[in-house]
Task: structure prediction
Amino acid sequence: MDSLTRVKELVCTVGSFQLSQQKELPELKVEEKSFNQLVSYVDKESEWMLVEGLKGITPNATFITEEDTVENIKSDEYWIIDPLDGTTNYLFGLDMFSISIAYYKKNKPVYANVYLPVKDEMFEADENGATLNGKPIQVSSRYRLSETLIATGFPYYNFNELSSYLEVLKTLMEGTKGLRRMGSAAIDLAYTACGRFDGFFELNLSPWDVAAGAYIIQQAGGTVSDFNGGDDFVFGNSILAGNTAIHSEIKKIIDQYNF
Result:
């Protein structure tokens, strides 16, 4: 069995664990890490399972993880892991949650996987392109903003730039077919990669929220940047992604406001 097959099987195993535990929601122990940021036993156990499994597959790799079950260290090879992106959805019994992992070598992504356990959808990317359940995917070809469906997230703990954000939302509400918020940035990005959404933007995310999905979009032919048009979208404060035309159109709107 090759390494990639082992990674996929590991992700599916963790997804099955999450589905089994969601049936026991009233019994789950939940903590609030900080304002509006929830974490459960399932998050921590899922991360432990992923880290231990990936150690066996890539023994030289280090980890950057959300729940700090292992020391966070960058090295020549490292994984960026969100064990359960969409924890609030998960804890409220909703099905829009995902596992998000990205493998980096020399600070460049070489593999990414976003898995939706409820839907059994696995989005992947490597040097050969991007796939959904093994079939190639591409970003959408829509280029008129008025014809698009755009994904975003709402500020939930840092409201310093809320006024500017609301102005962008208002402009896009008036100028597109609509806005959607899945509650999992990894899902928003994966859906953008396969053309279900035409673009995605959000502030104040963490590396584990976006590392995998951003690479999947890039390998699906899309464009990813921070709000300034630069490449600091994984470890920075903002991300804007989509097909190239819509990325450009949304950036023009964002540029009008003070972020």
In short: The chain has two domains: 3-136, 145-254. The mean pLDDT is 92. Helices lie at 3-22, 41-57, 87-91, 162-175, 185-193, 207-219, 244-254. The two ends are 48 Å apart (CA to CA).
